[in-house]
Amino acid sequence: MQKQQVRWNLNIHYHRVVLGAVPTEAANALDVGCGNGLLSFDLAAQGLDVIGVDPDAPSIERASTDADASGRTVFLCADVFTHRFEPASFDVVASNAMLHHVDAERGLRRMRELVRPGGVLAIVGFATPSGPIDLALIAAGFVYETFQRLRGRYWEHDAPKQWPPPLSINEMRALVERELPGARFRRAMAHRYSVVWQAR
Question: Helical H runs in the chain?
């Protein structure tokens, strides 16, 4: 969609983490906390059938309005914890800027159980800094975002926000190591981290 292509912010910037983790044979995906649906649209552009789920009705309405006629994206106004998704039913389960809105341990466990064997859980999340490396990455994110604003490329989303994140980078890493053995955890710019985990 042309309207979508001109949007940029750091959440959109990190779609690449999720898209780069998609297995070549993947057929479907669940976008948890999909907000306005931008990650869902990018996943659908890779040929996946995507369900976006979010409890915020205005966000789901906007996502549904922006969806094209391909039928590859379906948006549900629902709570991922209570909606009756079948366990192990998705090749890709993704979340971007969602996990700090909920109890992180509960969120990881719920998303983990929805990934089918061989599938991938890909997360970009927020956490507070745990040391000088994280502070440097926060500064780098500020500089990069400012540059994009000066270029007139920045887009401010209107989905609900939650700040500050309840856990630190080190706390998130420890939680991921416990709940997702073998996951790849990486620090990222502007309070962010990424997680990629393959189900066995």
Answer: 2-5, 10-13, 15-21, 38-45, 57-66, 104-113, 132-150, 169-179
Question: How far apart, in whole angstroms, are the C-alpha atoms of residue 111 and residue 64?
Answer: 23
**Would you say residue 138 lies in a domain?**
no
What pLDDT score was predicted for residue 3?
42
Count of alpha carbons within 13 angstroms of residue 102, beta-carbon side: 20
Q: In which domain, by residue range, is 88 found? A: 2-128+160-198
- Residue 137 structure tokens: 């990455």
Q: How far is CA 184 from CA 106, 124, 174, in A?
A: 19, 12, 12
Q: What is the pLDDT of residues 55-65, one digit of tens each?
A: 999 999 999 99
**By the 8 A CB rule, do 96 and 11 touch?**
yes
